[in-house]
Amino acid sequence: MYQSSFYQDEPKFNHPFENKLLTDYLSRFIDKNDKDIIFKDLKRFSDRIGDEIEPLAKEAEKNIPKHIAYTPWGKRIDEIEVHPSWTKLEKIASEENLIGIGYERKFGKNSRLYQMAKLFLFHPSSSYFSCPLAMTDGAAKLIELYGDQNLKNKAFKNLTSHNPETFWTSGQWMTEKTGGSDVGLSETRAYKKGDEYHLYGVKWFTSATTSQMAMTLARVVDENGNVIEGSKGLGLFYLELRDSNNQLNNIEILRLKDKMGTKALPTAELKLNGTKAKLIGETGEGIKKIASLFNITRIYNSCCATAAYYRVLDMAINYSRNRYAFKKNIIDHPLHFKKLSELKVKFHACFHLTFFLSRLLGESEQSPNKESEKVLRLLTPIAKLTTAKLNMVGTSELIECFGGAGTIEDTGLPKWLRDAQILTIWEGTTNVLSLDALRAISRDQAFLPYIEKMKSILQNVIDSEQKTLLIDKCEHLMLFMNQLSGLDHASIEFIADDLSFTIAKVTSAILMLEHASHYSNETAYRDIACEYIEQPWPSLDINDDLNSKMKRAQSILN
């Protein structure tokens, strides 16, 4: 009997630091005196990813967490059992100082840029340990801004430690059954007893449940038993999961969530039965203060989505160069290399948007500037929703490049698609973030500083047809924003996503064209920028009859 001796080589990915866009970008902005130190560390870390971290991630994916509710003799213990590979990833994250880099600020305003570069390398091989790192960084930021000296001496010090023996991660417990993204509907109650509060309620979706601490929202009950409904009644609380005897802090783990993706990451549903906690700030400041955490976690989400996109793109290109079909390697078929080139262009857009944010964050921490902070405030939700969406759509397209193999679980490919869908939901869905961008425009007056920033960047761009087009796009955006003042709130909300995607495209295109101007001898960067600008733009026509469109949409659903 005839048996084929052919075996297709599996897709491979390049050495993580062999990414020309990343190295060129860092070279542009990192001081020459710091570049050798940073590049040496990133190269060493990339070696460690291939040799040590990637195998650990694969082990963690195969051995997902388990909830051990009881001992064999019936005692409630609520242990979450994780595989040793997950624990080793936590140790590595501490050793590599993935949080501390952002707070030691040894490299000034570029400390965050360096940190995000390292996260970009780490995430695709982290089995989503990047998630607890995001919440850990967010918690560190909250404590740095609002924590008292005791919290800074203990929690902040541990969160930013690069010693695995003292390193802490943090959870983020906001979601409840009543509200989801609408945290103003939270039902968890906080009762004051002496100098501390005791929390009662159910947290529906809590990631990183093996962390040492968490930040959460709860509704404060006054001495007469009354509460204030809505966001104004919420306080921000710090809690530690276990006491000095390593017993859970009156926390009951109801179950682990069986998610479609991010399988190695323990995510639980919890019941707080008098959990001891510390109020940060005043009652009613919970939403305002938690925004500082969200700003960090959304930038992490953008970086992780961009990094995941690159990994799948890298594997798809490698596979396409080695897969032979219809008399040539499939990358040589015009329709195939057209699709890959389009997807690579969109990756570049995600990259520039994400790393521009990391630079803005670093600048705001080093030299606070109200106008720059407004730009950061507007672009943070927009970058998160855009990178997550482009990663989701791009990954779906890239999985097709592998044909049927892309659907087979033990190839390791389907997980990228499942995980991509989760990144569109974490830290706010597309709709939630689009509405948040509207708040940044209306409440925080962020649009004009944003336009001024874009115009200043365009001054660095070599004159071209594309530059003229982007100047026109900025003018069109300004005209559109002036027209918004004449619309009712429902009409403005109806087009919030189109506005967000338009701002994202304008921003990415300007940043890409600026990068091409800086490397004017690099034809590829110019081609990538031109291709992106020529790809279809979101529809944002100020002459549209929005009321008719809304009625049509309602009619379709009815």
Structure described in brief:
Among the domains are: 170-287, Butyryl-CoA Dehydrogenase, subunit A, domain 2, CATH 2.40.110.20; 441-557.
Description of the structure:
It contains 18 helices and eleven strands. The longest helix is centred in the middle third of the chain and has 37 residues, at about 285-320. The mean pLDDT is about 95. It has helices at about 20-30, 30-60, 85-95, 100-105, 110-120, 130-145, 150-160, 285-320, 335-365, 370-400, 415-425, 430-440, 445-460, 465-485, 490-495, 495-520, 525-535, 545-555, and strands spanning about 65-70, 75-80, 170-175, 190-195, 195-205, 215-220, 235-240, 250-255, 265-280, 325, 330. It has a five-stranded mixed β-barrel with strand order 4-5-9-7-6. It has a two-stranded antiparallel sheet with strand order 1-2. It is about 55% helix and about 15% strand. By secondary structure, the protein is of the alpha+beta class. A hairpin with a 2-residue loop joins strand 10 and strand 11. Helix 9 runs antiparallel to helix 10 (about 370-400), helix 9 crosses helix 16 (about 495-520) and helix 16 (about 495-520) packs antiparallel against helix 17.
Structure keywords:
558 residues, alpha+beta, two-stranded antiparallel sheet, 18 helices, 55% helix
Question: What does the secondary structure layout of this molecule look like, with pairings?
Answer:
Elements: H1 20-29, H2 32-62, E1 66-70, E2 76-81, H3 84-95, H4 100-104, H5 111-122, H6 130-146, H7 149-159, E3 170-173, E4 189-193, E5 196-207, E6 213-221, E7 234-240, E8 251-256, E9 267-280, H8 286-322, E10 324-325, E11 328-329, H9 334-366, H10 370-400, H11 414-423, H12 430-442, H13 447-458, H14 465-484, H15 489-494, H16 496-518, H17 523-534, H18 546-557
Parallel strand pairs: 3-6, 4-6
Antiparallel strand pairs: 1-2, 4-5, 5-9, 6-7, 7-9, 8-9, 10-11
Helix pairs in contact: 2-3, 2-5, 5-8, 5-9, 6-7, 6-8, 8-9, 8-10, 9-10, 9-16, 9-17, 10-11, 10-12, 10-13, 10-16, 12-16, 13-14, 14-16, 16-17
